[in-house]
Design a protein that fits this description.
This protein is an alpha/beta fold and about 240 residues long. The chain contains six helices and twelve strands. The chain has helices spanning about 20-30, 90-100, 125-140, 155-160, 200-210, 225-240; strands at about 5, 15-20, 40-45, 50-55, 60-70, 80-85, 105-110, 150, 155, 170, 190-195, 215. α2 runs parallel beside α3 (about 125-140) and α2 (about 90-100) packs parallel to α6 (about 225-240).
Length: about 240
C-alpha cells in the first residue's frame, strides 16, 4: 500500500512532533480521511523522506510524530536550468509539473517580446506562490525529496545575468545542432531556453546568442511551448542524465 507523501515547510527530525500546516492537514485528514495512527511520509526539501504517523486530530490542528528518516537518492546527475517563456494559465502549470517529474534542477520564468502573458509586479508574489505549489505537488507525486528552485517572473534580459556558467542552448527548429550531436558530455549541467507561445523574436534570439546560447533542434516538426521544453528535457536526460 502506497503511503501518502506531503511537503511541510519546517525542520524535521526523527522523534520530533510537528503540527502540520493547513494544506497538509487538510489533504491527509479532510480529503483522505486518515484517522489517528495512520502512516504518512513528510519531506521538506532537504533530501530526506521522514516516516511519520498522525498522533492526534483536532478541530483546527493535526499533529504528526516523526518516527524515522530516510535519505532519498533520485535526483538527476544532469542539472538542467529551464529558462521558460511564460505561457498562459494551465499551460505554464503543466510545464512546471512535467519538468519537475523529469528531474529539472531550476526554473526561470521570463517575459519576452512575444509573450502573451505580461509581467504584472502587483501579482508577482501570488504567481510565484502558485507556481511553487505546483512544483511541490509534483514532488509529492513523483517521489523527489528536493524541490526544484523556481525564480520570480522577470524579463529575459534580467534573467540572463544570473544563470550558471554551463553550456547554454535555445530551442530553434532551424538550428543545425541536435541533442545527439552535442559534442561533449554535459557533466556540469546545462541551461535550456524555451520561448513562449509566440516563440523567440529576432531580438530575443540576438540577446540569447550574445549571452552564449547556441541553437538546438529537436526534429523536423515545430512543437508548442508546452511540448518543446518537456521533450527537450526528456531527450537531454536520456542522453546525459538518468533516463537511460
Amino acid at each position: 500500500m502506497r503511503v501518502t507523501r506531503v511537503h511541510v515547510d519546517a525542520a524535521l527530525s526523527a522523534g520530533a512532533t510537528i503540527a502540520l500546516p493547513e494544506s497538509a492537514a487538510t489533504h491527509l485528514v479532510r480529503v483522505l480521511r486518515l484517522p489517528p495512527g495512520s502512516a504518512c511520509v513528510l519531506f521538506n526539501g532537504d533530501g530526506n523522506d521522514y516516516d511519520a504517523r498522525i498522533s492526534s486530530v483536532g478541530k483546527r490542528s493535526v499533529v504528526a510524530e516523526v518516527v524515522g528518516a530516510r535519505a532519498v537518492d533520485n535526483e538527476s546527475p544532469l542539472r538542467i536550468t529551464l529558462v521558460q517563456g511564460i505561457a498562459r494559465g494551465e499551460k505554464m502549470d503543466w510545464i512546471l509539473q512535467k519538468a519537475t517529474e523529469l528531474g529539472i534542477h531550476a526554473i526561470v520564468p521570463v517575459g519576452s517580446e512575444r509573450s502573451e502573458v505580461k509581467l504584472d509586479p502587483e501579482r508577482a508574489g501570488k504567481r510565484l506562490a502558485h507556481w511553487r505549489s505546483v512544483v511541490i505537488s509534483a514532488c509529492e507525486q513523483c517521489g523527489r525529496a528536493r524541490v526544484p528552485e523556481i525564480a520570480a517572473a522577470q524579463s529575459l534580459q534580467a534573467a540572463l545575468s544570473d544563470l550558471p556558467a554551463v553550456p547554454r542552448f535555445l530551442l530553434d527548429p532551424e538550428a543545425m545542432q541536435s541533442i545527439a550531436g552535442i559534442p561533449q558530455p554535459l557533466a556540469s549541467g546545462c541551461v535550456l531556453a524555451v520561448g513562449p507561445e509566440g516563440g523567440w523574436s529576432p531580438r530575443d534570439r540576438e540577446v540569447l546568442q550574445q549571452a552564449g546560447f547556441s541553437g538546438l533542434r529537436l526534429g523536423p516538426r515545430i512543437l508548442r511551448t508546452e511540448t518543446a521544453g518537456i521533450a527537450a528535457i526528456a531527450a537531454l536526460q536520456a542522453h546525459f542524465g538518468d533516463l537511460s
